[in-house]
């Protein structure tokens, strides 16, 4: 089996923004770096633009700063920027490491659709409307009100649908999820959960309920099973084996062709034992192959995400 992984979520860019000394080539303080991508067989990594609360009020200038860092620190190290289906194929053909760009939380876009277009032109292809809390577009999953999309948020969704930005439901409130799913179904546009697990297996609010998983499957979306320990199991120590029940559960709901991975590397301080950084993906693949057919594992690691991106990237 060819070992080439696609990971749909990491926060390396946010770390690079907060600490300018970090080197993307091989800095061990980064879960994801060039060395570890090669070691783990990560062919394509999606880099999220997440604005840390340490920066203060979210603003477009911070997003632009991360876009500049992507070019100067990540692309400069040989990562091929991927913004089209053709570039995805080309990266694979050349055996190049590829990078995708997403935005985690619309806060810094300041309610300005022109800023969304600027981000699209700079290569952003995925957008999560919220982080955990409320912003101008919608409520996040930890917001006590649990409201859905605002009128400005609905306008943002329609704009993204026209532009071709893939929308991400991870972190979105339950009400927001269903409103967005309804809009996606009506428009025939895609949805993913870039880094969320199954609530039935681990009852954390950031995980997806069975009806949400079924909705993503029916929309032919994708679910990025994540390595955030407290989304995997509510115990002090979490092992790699503890992720398998999430895979089994999504499969039981009919989602075996909809599973991918969204590690959340560099967005977490505590790790699943044996999945501490991107270099561990190779061992993770070996473990999966002990329990599941090769075709299934190949789909989870690469094929399912690739088929989705080939369909929905411009």
UniProtKB/TrEMBL annotation:
PROSITE patterns recorded: RENAL_DIPEPTIDASE_2 (PS51365)
Biological-process GO terms, alphabetical: proteolysis
Domain of life where this protein originates: Bacteria
Any single Pfam family the record assigns to this protein: Peptidase_M19
Gene Ontology molecular function: metallodipeptidase activity
SUPFAM superfamilies membership: Metallo-dependent hydrolases
Annotated protein name in UniProt: Dipeptidase
Organism per entry: Paenibacillus antibioticophila
